[in-house]
Amino acid sequence: MRKHYSTEFKLWTISLASEKGMSLHQAEEYCGLSNYP
């Protein structure tokens, strides 16, 4: 896994979080892409 997400991924995560009413951290976990504690 790359250390830094691409801008597209960040924008998509923000969009998902906004749509689902999640925090960005929750959206990352929802996507299964958050490998950080």
Can I get a quick summary?
The protein has 37 residues and is mostly helical. The chain has 2 helices and no strands. It comes from Avibacterium gallinarum.
Describe what this molecule looks like in 3D.
The protein is globular, with a radius of gyration of 9 Å. It has helices at residues 7-20, 24-31. Helix 1 crosses helix 2. It has 37 residues and is mostly helical. It has two helices and no strands. The mean pLDDT is 75. It has one domain (1-37). The longest helix is centred in the middle third of the chain and has 14 residues, at 7-20. 59% of the residues lie in helices and 0% in strands.
SSE map:
Layout: H1 7-20, H2 24-31
Helix pairs in contact: 1-2
Defining key terms:
37 residues, 2 helices, 59% helix, Transposase
Distance between the termini: 14 Å
- Our count of helices gives 2
Q: Give the biggest beta sheet.
A: none
Overall mean pLDDT score? 75
Per the principal axes of the C-alpha atoms, what is the gross shape? globular
Q: Segments where pLDDT lies below 50 for 5+ residues?
A: none
Protein name: Transposase
